[in-house]
Amino acid sequence: MTTAPAAPTAPAALRERAARLDADDPLAALRDRFLLPPDTVYLDGNSLGPLPAAVPPVVRDVLTRQWGTDLIASWHTNGWWEAPLRVGDAIGALIGAAPGQTVAGDSTSVQLFTALDAAAALRPGRTLLVTDPEHFPTDRYLAEAVARRRGLDVRRVPPAALPGFLDAEGHRVAVVSYSPVDFRTGELYDMRALTRAAHQAGALALWDLCHAAGALPLDVDSLGVDLAVGCGYKFLSGGPGAPAYLYVARRHHAGLETPLPGWTGHADPFAMAPQYTPAPGVARARVGTPAILSLLALEAALTAFDGVDLTEVRAKSLSLTGFFLRCAEELLAPLGFTAVTPADPGRRGSQVSLRHPGARALTAALAEHGVIADMRVPDLLRFGVNALYTTHQELLTAVLRLRDVARARGADGS
Ligand SMILES: Cc1ncc(COP(=O)(O)O)c(C=O)c1O
């Protein structure tokens, strides 16, 4: 097990609180499921999750035995062919999807294109595609592209204004496309209420779960979510460029038309038929030959969640972000840092964002002191916590180091 670097001098009350919270942490042992570098406080798992210990032996086996020895027979003998649906179901278990509705593969951007286009096709005659003006760029670009392709108009409506917008214009809306967690601020939106508002308007709800899956309990089936996408490389720790996933609720399978009817989504791929006939169910959302090395690395990474109760993950994540906010208020607010992540636990994802004009230089300086966070232009420092491995003591160390580098650099942090 790795340990965090020794903390610089901290107020005794914060130090004692961090130590007590870590000592009482029911998830503490899960940290051993990750290979974290020593002397590093890693708070960027909301961008790239660290390496799970289960991954290297699996990747070695895939390389040396499955590919190296078993060669092409592996498509069947080592379960390569079924991997997109098998890994999809493993992700489905983390987002509250019963088996048979989730497929893993491609990138989030590709899955978003498929989901947006398929959603528009499921609501013919409706002319609006509604999305968050602050959505991650790829979500915004693809909404525009799908709208152009389908002859729809895009409306950019902040989540708080969505119910009111739908009351007025909902009869024209085909799909609403949002993320439960704002990637910049870490604000958590009410997925249940927004999904219900979409349905009351007769629209479909599409969620981008990149910043939520693996970080908090999700229940796409019971909320009645229509479609969802997400990446494999953030809280799922599936590795750089890990395959993404697409969830389509079973009730939409029969009418599901995907814009990328590739051969692996065919009902009988090896018949090599002249015409495309979609496979039954979500399998038709497969496109081309799956990236097996990445897919099986992701599958191994997901075992870090074996036996883990996501309500406990959420409770610890809130404890971590709450503690970080308290440390920031005490130690960083006097230096010009402002928390933009809501203090209300019900409105907080699994990251804390602080505003400071020197965000870029400070993030780089922090990295030199063993604390890995990231920044978003122009002035946000982002600190992602993952309850599977982050400790309260690491967060105190991060805040103290940030205080020290900010003090050393003066008021604007440059
Ligand atoms: C909400 C959200 N959607 C999508 C993406 C990225 O999409 P892709 O996996 O295709 O690069 C990100 C990346 O950070 C993201 O935060």
Automatic annotation (TrEMBL):
Molecular function (Gene Ontology), one example? kynureninase activity
Keyword Nucleotide-binding in annotation: no
| A cellular-component GO term for this protein | cytoplasm
In what pathway does it function? Cofactor biosynthesis; NAD(+) biosynthesis; quinolinate from L-kynurenine: step 2/3; Amino-acid degradation; L-kynurenine degradation; L-alanine and anthranilate from L-kynurenine: step 1/1
As recorded in UniProt, its EC number(s) are: 3.7.1.3
Q: Which reaction does it catalyse?
A: L-kynurenine + H2O = anthranilate + L-alanine + H(+); 3-hydroxy-L-kynurenine + H2O = 3-hydroxyanthranilate + L-alanine + H(+)
Question: Where along the sequence do coiled-coil regions lie?
Answer: none
> Per the record's keyword annotation, is Metal-binding included, yes or no?
no
N6-(pyridoxal phosphate)lysine modified-residue sites: 234
**Any one of the GO BP annotations:** anthranilate metabolic process
Matching entries from InterPro entries are given as:
Kynureninase, PyrdxlP-dep_Trfase, PyrdxlP-dep_Trfase_major, PyrdxlP-dep_Trfase_small
Which residues make up the binding site for pyridoxal 5'-phosphate?
108-109, 136-139, 208, 211, 233, 263, 289
Query: Cofactors per UniProt?
Result: pyridoxal 5'-phosphate
Keywords, in A-Z order: Hydrolase, Pyridine nucleotide biosynthesis, Pyridoxal phosphate
Look at the named UniProt entry and state the broad enzyme category this protein falls under: hydrolase
Q: Self-association or partners: how does it assemble?
A: Homodimer.
Family recorded in the similarity comment: Belongs to the kynureninase family.
Q: Outline what the protein does.
A: Catalyzes the cleavage of L-kynurenine (L-Kyn) and L-3-hydroxykynurenine (L-3OHKyn) into anthranilic acid (AA) and 3-hydroxyanthranilic acid (3-OHAA), respectively.
Name of the protein in its database record:
Kynureninase
Give the organism's phylogenetic lineage: Bacteria, Bacillati, Actinomycetota, Actinomycetes, Kitasatosporales
The gene name reads kynU
